[in-house]
Queue: 3 jobs
Job 1
Amino acid sequence: MAYIYIAWLLFSQILLQVARHEAKVPAIIVFGDSTVDSGNNNQISTLLKSNFKPYGRDFAGGQPTGRFSNSRVPPDFISEAFGLKPLVPAYLDPKYGISDFATGVCFASAGTGYDNATSDVLNVIPLWKEVEYYKEYQAKLRAHIGHHKAREILTEALYVISLGTNDFLENYYLLPKRQVEYTVQQYQDFLIGIAEKFMRELYALGVRKISLTGLPPMGCLPLERTINLLGHHDCTEEYNSVAVEFNVKLKNMVAKVNRELPGYRILLTEKVYQLVYQMIKTPSQFGFDVTEKACCSTGTFEMSYLCSEKSPFTCRDANKYVFWDAFHPTEKTNKILSDYLIPDLLKLFN
């Protein structure tokens, strides 16, 4: 199995090298949560930040950027694979302006979800506000390069969207409000309704190319394993089952919207679940040693400010770990996931 994976990875790298010279996507535009946030939370009043060390310690220059990783996140790798810049800047980052955002911009906010109530938990940017920022960006882009060129970029750009995990782990399973209102299956349907409305709103704004990520095996995140005392700190399979069910519903929604809206191409990257689960269950195939704990601090419950640079427990080599903190992947995991998805993205969107 390991040999097959290595051969596939080499083949995908060849495809990427060829594609870099042929890519037709003019920009990568990002919506979502901490899996794709490149620093927007740095600029808002929230406890959920990562603009301090050890975050970003393996980034160029060893500087934290607000990405919840030791270095880059998936949109960065996707942008580079399409022949664009190797980093997608955060929209709220004052170091960047509209000329930087013309080839890629990130509106994502760590801690957010489809549900507005999820963003309220840690006072982060709700999804509706991400859309408002996008509308503002559209107007700035038109003023910067003209309506015709702006329309071309906005229509041909690839939109990368990653949402949903926080809705369950930060909101539904942690707080009582949604549990009183919905069963977990009803809450899934509630979120799918919001997701469909979001997809249709983007279409009305001129968006045509979307990579939408489904839920990972969220019961296998180190934090969930830490609190799974009765399960001997194994994966919480109840949460994984919910993720699988949600992904099926998301797939059906995507098929419906693709069918009903002419020219719309939404690719649901549902394979993320299987790949992450495989990394966790057979880590040696991917060059990992540790899956049940994260690199940062004790690796059991820490993230954001609990990931202190002063902790003596933080690992020396993050490449041996699937997870960087108790909730987020290492750069190596992000790259493996991106390399797995990019050939499909290049095939569909070039």
Job 2
Amino acid sequence: MEKAKRASGAVVNALPTGGANDVSLEEPKAPMREDWRKKKELEEQRKLGNAPAEVDEEGKDINPHIPQYISSVPWYIDPSKRPTLKHQRPQPEKQKQYNCSGDWYKRGVPEHAVGMRYHKGACENCGAVTHKKKHCKERPRKVGAKYTGMNIAPDEHVQPQLMFDYDGKRDRWNGYNPEEHLKIVKEYSKVDLAKWTLKAQKLQEELASGKLEQVNSPRHQWGEEESNLQTEKDCNSEDEDKYADDIDMPGQNFDSKRHITVRNLRIREDIAKYLRNLDPNSAYYDPKTRAMRENPYASTGKNPDEVGYAGDNFVRYTGDSISMAQTQFLAWEAYDKGSEVHLQADPTKLELLYKSFKAKKEDFKAQQKESILEKYGGQEYLDPPPALLS
């Protein structure tokens, strides 16, 4: 008994007595079912927009619809910074440093000042500092510049090693000198000046030959202006004749190289359908198919025959379109009954069949009318009344 008491006392004395540096022996509690349910309900409310979104450490809202395998933080992230999506964003230490769009390779570099003496580490053959002897492109000298100190070659310009991003590689105007465009402007200005000089010489020749009369009286000022305008038009017409092949017809675009004609959707002189009637309750305009099936002037009380446009359906049911639709309907009925007729394959046969069908239909109606009158009578009621004598 005494040995047991001594052993139990030793165990009690070995246990920590609760100091400031003592380690807690309590294990972390497992999440309860109620906490799990509340967490799921909060997630559903955030997805529906009834609860505010979760905010990360940088103050940005976290989208509640992000899948868990994306929003879950890896084990190597500091747990005190949760929740966060920083692990999904580009890491600054892994980003490449690119040159700005203004940096470019130097073009047209002038030669540098020629050195007066040989520098240590320069090319032994020509004396340039920018390369070594094995990379020298000059003719090998009998006695190199290292020993003579004469005819030192100028240093080359070493182009920088530039690194551009996606947009920088595809910037077609990067490194372009705008002053180069002035050469084109000056060239075209010289051409225009020469053209006007030739026109002026031609006008002076016509005045000298007597084709044009120069009159300074007020009576002939208007006539002089008209003649000058006509002369200018004639001069311009010579230039326009050169480019007559490039002029497009209204509503068409002809490519002479590929020999095709592209028809535009509408001629620009026409009024757009949606501008016919600006009332929002008028005919509906479908912007995708550019169709307006109803009459835009229906609410105005105008006759469809009087307006320039009465809808796509009005145009569809005018002319021979109705008779063609009836012919097609007859071909379908005849095919169902065993007759092989087709509108596109044999239109002549179908047209003759349609005419005979109409004639037989009229005869059948007339015979049916006569049989009804013979059986029941009443012909006198169908005759028009006699005209009243005044």
Job 3
Amino acid sequence: MFTNMSVRSLLRLSGCIFREANAVSSALSAEPLTCSTALLSGPNLRCGSFALQPQVRHYARAAKKSVAASPRHLSDLTPTMLKLDYATVPLAQTTDDVVKRLISLELASHKEKLELKKELLISKVQRDKNDRNSEEVRVAMLTARICNFQDHLQIHPKDKANKRRMLMAIDKRKKILKKLRLIRYDAFEKVCEQLGITYTFPPEYYRRVTRRWLAKKAFCLKVFKEVQKQKAEEKNKMKQNKVTKDANIAKAQ
């Protein structure tokens, strides 16, 4: 009996649901959805029988600050300069404009421009025309490479591999400059002036400061003070013993 009543109630509910769905569909088909500009201007946007959410403008988002780009190290190379392979050819100056444009830096690759820049830096500091292996020349070559890495990292700041190569080149240049400063100080000053290098003295002692190291250092200092205190007490006792012995010897005499 109860099962029959439950089945009948379910059938009545389903019939009501179907009637309401048919009524809604007929109303939607009879009334088309229209969205006017007047309706869309308010905070609660309505389109027909549907409510639209207002557009999020992100007014609280912080504006991105534009970082001023530093000058590139190849900016001093003019497009009219000839490539490195054609700079010493005398006929390159007397050719027509089309050939000059082909052999100039206007259509040169980045690698060719970098080679020319490297040669210009080397010519500033080399000892003679055939010098290619002195400390000054190696510093100039490393300087050109470091500047190239710096320009690349301005565009691609997340390039960890090239950043590591740049730091390795900087460390290598520091070692060469340190050696050159000890051997030939006048050449060291000339290289730093011509290449625009600011030499900073390395610290005397490299140590990473940690909480464990600070605690160990404080403990060692405390132990050192206690040891010095014990030594001072022993010295005072020895002096007193010596004074008493001398006094006893003087009495006995």
